[in-house]
Each structure stands twice: as structure tokens, then as C-alpha cells.
Please model this.
Amino acid sequence: MAFFNTEITTEIILFSVDAIFSIILVKSYNKIGRYINCLQEVSSREDDNALDNLKTDKGKYALVHGPVKALGNTIPSLHVPHMSGVVQKLSTSELVMTRNSSGFWWDESRPIHQSYNVVPFAIVLGKHVIEVQDVLQADELHLDTVYNKYDRTVHSLAGNLWSFFFGVRQYGMQTTEEMLKEGTIVTGIGDLMLSSDGTKLLVPPSGNKPYFITTQPLSSLLRDLRDKKSLFGWLLILTGGLTILFGGLLARRLWANLKKRKAKQELQRRLDQDRRSRRQNVRDNELPETLRCVVCQENPKEVILLPCGHLCICEDCSEQITSSCPICRSHIATKAAAFLS
Model:
């Protein structure tokens, strides 16, 4: 653990955070690239012959474009009169300011409630009705915001003091309702297949391909994805450069620490060698008992115990004796090396 000391903590943190961010960017970049490749190859199935020749055993990755039609009752809006749809998303969030460890205050939105309501619906393409399955599994599901209300929280003096003391202050509640309304023109991209009862279905595709239910046409969707890919590409270049920079700084610091560690080990090796040589010379000269360690009675006295000042133990025994002097039993505050000649 001494090798990874506090001197390189900053470099390790910077390198790790940047590397993690780079990995996330690489995954996002590759994911968007895969989406673009799939959408470029998608074939339009808008002609009647193609829709009439669907098979039940295997889906065809395809695109359908047309208005949304409910296959039963629609979902009425909770907040907007005379409005209904086939997919409804209700969200409630708490808007707060939080104080971080540095003492700065940040705005934060904390979800309190989120729910979806879905009824069976289809995309109408001429005389064909294509039922959409598992819409909530879509990689992109476009919903229109039909209601968005912000309720401000009014605090008393005691509430303000309480918020300041605990570092969290609520300043409002956000209520949002989003819907996919009946009649909306959408583009559905997924596997097009025929069910056993003859119903035409648009289902989540196999083979890790994207599933889209969006109001954007294919050309607009591809343009947005290419813009995102370009942005992620530039960010990846930036974070990659920073990763190389931080990695170089970290490697330089680690190399310097490694050299220091080796130098320290070499110094310790020489000291140990000198100590063994000195002890051997002492033994060869028949060291008097009064100059031997009072604990092991073998090695010379090499350590002074402070504050009592007794020179009574060798270095080996000093590692075991840490609390009190073996001569006077006084507390050991520190130790100092001594050499007998």
C-alpha cells in the first residue's frame, strides 16, 4: 500500500474518472453507430404486396409510417379535457437545491412518481392495420407533453433555517403528463410479422436492432443520430486525449515512486548488511554481558529508549517492545539508534 501513497491520489482519481467517462462514450458511440447502420438498411414495407406476403414464423425488420389508431377505448387525459391517447406517461418530480461537500448549492430534480398507461393500438397503412406490440420496450418512444405544471413551495423562516442546516431545500413540485394521441402520424421501426390469427404485428426486433416509435420521419431520425454520433466522436477524442495525459502523469509519478522505493530498499539492505557485519564483529570480540541486549542476551545494545534514556535493547527486540522500558518500566515515547564501538 505504501507504493500507492497520497501523492498519486489526484492522478489516480483523474485518470479513473476520465477512463470511465471514455468507456461510456465508446459504448454510446458504438450503439448510435449500430442504430444508424440498422436504419440505413431498413426496407420500407409500405406496398400492399409486401404486407400481404408476411410470414408467421419470421419477422422482417421494416418501417411503417401512418396514423395511430386505438384498438378499443382510448386513455383520457387527467389534466386536459377532451383529450385522449393510446400511451400516457404521468410524472411527478421534486425540485430541490442541495449543498455538496464543497459548500456549493446545486439544482436537482428528484423523481417521486412515474407511471405508464397503455392500451392496444395500431399504425394504419392504407387498408392495413398493423398492431404495435410492447411499445414500452422501444428504444425511442415519442410522447407529446400535454400538461406541465410547476408548483412553487413557500417556506417559512423556520423552514429556511431547517433547509440551510440540513443542506436540502425544496423549491417546487413538477407535474407532467405526456401522451401519444390517437391520430398522430408516427414512424414505427421493428420486426413486421404475421400472428397465427392473421393479425399484422410490429414487434421489438431480434438481433439487437433498435425499436422506434417516433413522430420523426426516417431521414430526420437518421440526421439526429448522425449529429449525436458526431458529438460523441468529438467528446471521445477529447476524453481520449485527457486519458493519455492523465495516464502519462500517473505513469511518471508511479515510476518516480518506484525508483524511490527501490532506493529505500537498497538503503535498508545496506543498513541490514552493516548491522549484521557489526554484530558479527562484536560476537567475534566476545562482547561483555553488560553491552548485550537485556532481552535476547545475544545482540549488542543498539536502541536508546526515550525519555528515560536507557540503552538496553537491540533493533530486533525494539520491534517487539513498544510500550514500556524493560529496565525502568517507564513509557516509551520514541526511540533512537545508538552504535557501540
Remarks:
- The radius of gyration is 37 Å.
